[in-house]
Design a protein that fits this description.
Elements (H helix, E strand, L loop, with lengths): L1 E9 L3 H8 L5 H4 L3 E8 L8 E8 L2 E13 L3 E7 L3 E12 L2 E12 L2 H32 L6
Antiparallel strand pairs: 1-7, 2-3, 3-4, 4-5, 5-6, 6-7
Length: 151
């Protein structure tokens, strides 16, 4: 099992951060290699909602399924993310700090194949760096565009 946590302070109130975070059209603007988020069942932000994350990495396309398994609206969201190769739990916590918001993302996952079970711990540092870059991009977008990133 591989686990890491990253966080950032966003200069926007929590309600704006929640709107940006729950808007699937925003995801490709801040998540590396993500081409689109396809809503399959229920509305994003509702427990039991299912989405397909369509990725393209180094010319290879793959889909991960994202199921929201826990939601405390405005403060905590936990998703189960799975593909043929990996299963992970992503916990996003939002803490109001006056007119700012602390966003904390905790990732816990494991490979489904022996090779990935061995590689994930070695890739942990790279995954942390990528997550920090993605959070910084999210912060910049929300601070300049509000909760809708599409032009």
């Amino acid at each position: 099992m591989t686990t890491f946590e990253v966080s950032i302070i966003i200069n926007q109130p929590t309600d704006i951060v929640v709107k940006a975070l729950m808007n699937p059209d925003n995801f490709p603007y801040w998540q590396k290699d993500l081409e689109k988020f396809e809503v399959i069942e229920r509305k994003p932000g509702e427990v039991g909602s299912i989405g397909h994350l369509h990725y393209s990495q180094k010319g290879k396309s793959y889909i991960m399924e994202d199921i929201l398994i826990f939601c405390e609206p405005g403060s905590k969201y936990i998703s189960q993310v799975t593909s043929d190769a990996i299963t992970a739990q992503v916990e996003t916590t939002l803490n109001a700090l006056g007119n700012k918001t602390e966003m904390v993302v905790k990732w816990t996952g494991k490979g489904k194949t022996l090779l990935l079970r061995l590689l994930l711990p070695l890739l942990r540092g790279k995954m942390i760096r990528q997550s920090r870059v993605e959070l910084e991009t999210f912060k910049q977008l929300i601070e300049t565009k509000g909760y809708t990133f599409v032009a």
